[in-house]
Amino acid sequence: MMIFVARTSEREYNKGDEIAWYADGDKIVRNEYNPATAYAFDRVFGPHTVSDEVYEVLAKPVVKVAMEGVNDAVLTST
Question: Which structural domain range is residue 53 located in?
Answer without folding.
Answer: 2-67
